[in-house]
Amino acid sequence: MQGAFFQVLSFLQSFRWRILLKAFWKSEYIKYLALLTDSRMRRQVDVWGSWGEWGECSRSCGGGVSFRQRRCYSQRTEGGSSCPGPARSYRSCNIQSCPEGSRDFRAEQCAEFDGIEFEGKKYKWLPYYGAPNKCELNCIPKGENFYYRHKEAVVDGTTCEPGKRDICVEGICQTVGCDNMLDSAKKEDKCLQCGGDGSTCYGVKGNFDVANLPKGYNQIFIIPVGATSIHIKEVKPSRNFLAVKNVRGEYYLNGHWTIDSSRALHVASTVMHYDRGVGGDLAPELLHARGPTTEPLLVELISQEPNPGVQYEYYLPVQGPSAGYSWSYSSWSECSSECGGGFQSRLVFCTIDNEIYPDYMCRNKPQPDNNRTCGRQACPQTKRWKTGEWGSCSATCGGGTQTRSVYCAAFDGQSAQGAVDAAECMAFAPQPPSSQPCNTRQCTSWSTGPWSECSASCGEGVRTRAVTCRTQQGAQAQPLACLLEPRPAATEPCVRESCAHEIGWHVGDWGLCSKSCDSGIRTRQVICADGDSKFYSPEMCKAIQPQKPATLGSCNVQPCYLPQQVPSMQDTMGYDVTRQSLLTRYNPNNPATGFLSPDSDDGRMHPGTSVGHGSSGNHHNQFEDHGTNLLPVRWEPQSRSLGSRQLGFPGDLTARRGSQDCHRSPHGCCPDGHTPASGPLGRGCPFGTCQRSRYGCCPDGVSPAQGPGNTGCPQYYSDVQVSRSQPTAAAPMVTHPKAELPLAQQQPPGECRASTYGCCFDNVTPASGPQGEGCLDRPSYRK
Predict the structure, then answer these.
(1) Domain ADAMTS/ADAMTS-like Spacer, which positions (predicted)?
(2) Distance between CA 348 and CA 345 in Å, rounded?
């Protein structure tokens, strides 16, 4: 019994030691001690320790990478180790596809630098795939033409190129099998079947070798829906270009003579790679895509020289889409929002045989979605300064201050979430100013000068003064600088003493022109009178106003192939003989009353064109002192613009005509001596009454003669001695009325008006021809 007990005890003790020895042997330390005692350690051979646990996956979807590490143990005293093999082991993880509408993983990494100042500017960064190293984080600013390497390596699991499976691991592009596993040997066939043998699809290959094509865009073939493993390449380099568009005519590549650089483009729900080669036009162009395509694609050749040939290859399923109409759709558009929820859209249309048909033709088949949500990931919260509107300036000029609110706000990518401590924004950008100077321009105001003399020598006129814009220092400024203040008046009316008894020249309207073209002559009435309609000797007016207004002027100076400028004796169109004739006081300071330029609206001429004045001023013609066709006049109210009075004939011809003695009427007699006036100053008197009187008109054309030989006419007319000057083509001269006249002129006044060719210039002698033939000293007309 005792012996058995000791046998059991001995067995348990040996079993216990064996367990302890086994556990001790499993420890890394005892292994190390054992290796130290091994003969090979004496030769300093390094060894690996055990692998550690797998780390966290680099991505949550779309194919990430995780790794584990092991340690190299060495006896080397000089440092370093030489364990064979890698210290890390990698494997694929989270290979499931990301949700529809998710953002590109490389684009997310570039977006981390959005809004961060780069060389003095802030940009929105997009992925750039054209750099030689596909695993560097190269980004291009939106709208710019340069790219920048933000990181030496992208995050593990980032695809090397868009549309391909290979991913970057530790900055190196690694092969990924069609099962989305690292270092997998599985490959997909041309039909995109993983591990397939290519039996589910058939190839379509060809060579478009038509050499002579029209210049421009030429369609060469169509890639149908469902095509996979697409490969298109020029046989030789040329100056021609490949182009791609859809059946609606919208270009995806090289459209409208705009040639793109090498890039990857999303078309027909796949990624098509366009490669022009590093040699530019000297390298053959290449197009390749994995597929399958979801819409027909039209491939064109932009011909600029003979075509060396374009080879193409793609594969279609053996069991193609069911016969009849089917839905096709384009690639999704960019997401409307990068985070916080956005939308994408695509075109969905009904097709058959690569042609578009109305949607109802596909009504028996389920229609794919044409929009979807995207960018649903939460936007990162950012801090940035928020500013309000600038307030009003504290001063209108001379320098003021305006302020605004400035505070630090938190944003979630969609809107501001509220104010936070200013220090959180100071870490990203300096605080914007909350005040600024304003209205720094100098203060200005209107400055006025002294009033000038009144423009009228009598009666009402106008006076003026200078109005300028000046600074506070007195310097003159532009008028725009004073626009904020009302501008003082630069003119105002003024009144001088009454013009009633002031004697001066009065001029009437111009008469008919003697010719309708090629320089004619016309006259007007010029008299010396005062404001009470009293006539005076011309010498009295000359003493006051030495420059007598012209009574004769040229007219219708235009060539005869042009229409006349003013009414003439040959064509009286526009000339109203019954019109009111005005006698206006002549103001030497205002040319309108005495001198009229040739370009005036009524065709009157400047005094420089008038004729009939002698050089000495003592020679004057019949029209100056005894102007013909003088009209009855009356005084009009005082002029406000020139301080002068106008004489005119009233349009009212309803004067009472009766046997009543006009001298007993309230307003006296008309100039004819027997018609009573209906108002003061000859109102209501008939037109041209002196011409209808028994003895006709006096030489002034207004007063009726009381007997033959100008009996009863104003005395000064019979005393004026008019010298005869030599007649010229421009100024026909006649003798004084009291001188010896031809028998033809000794006819009763007005009788010439009934003749065939009217009166001569004396308004007495009848003319015997249309241009004054038979008249004394008639002007010679130039042809």
Answers:
(1) 204-317
(2) 9
Contacts of the segment 105-112: beta carbons below 8 A, 24+ positions apart: 105/59, 105/62, 105/155, 105/157, 105/158, 105/159, 106/137, 106/154, 106/158, 106/159, 109/137, 109/150, 109/151, 109/154, 109/155, 109/158, 110/137, 110/139, 110/150, 111/338
pLDDT tens sequence across 655-687: 333 434 676 676 666 656 667 776 655 556 665
Rg (CA), the chain: 57
Neighbours of 507 (CB within 10 A): 24
Cα–Cα distance for residue pair 341/102, rounded to 1 Å: 10
pLDDT of residue 424: 80
Is the Cβ–Cβ distance between 112 and 379 less than 8 Å? Answer: no
β-bridge partners, 506: 527, 585
Mean pLDDT of 88-113: 89
**CA 402 – CA 292 distance, rounded (Å):** 63
Q: At what angle do helices 28-37 and 2-26 cross, to 10 degrees?
A: 80
Buried b / exposed e over 678-692, threshold 16 CB at 10 Å, is beebbebbbbbbbbe
Q: Which residue has tokens 């680099």?
A: 58
> What is the rounded CA–CA span in Å between residue 631 and residue 581?
7
CA distances for 212 relative to 215, 233, 237, angstroms? 9, 18, 16
In this structure, the number of other CB atoms found within 10 A of the CB of residue 252 comes to 20
Mean pLDDT of the 510-539 span:
85
pLDDT tens digit sequence for 157-210? 999 988 888 999 999 999 999 888 998 888 889 999 988 898 999 999 999 999
Instruction: Say if CB 702 and CB 645 are below 8 A apart.
Output: no
For the chain, list the domains and their CATH numbers. Answer: 208-317 (2.60.120.830), 326-374 (no CATH), 382-438 (no CATH), 444-472+486-497 (no CATH)
10 Å Cβ neighbour count for 642? 24
pLDDT at 163: 82
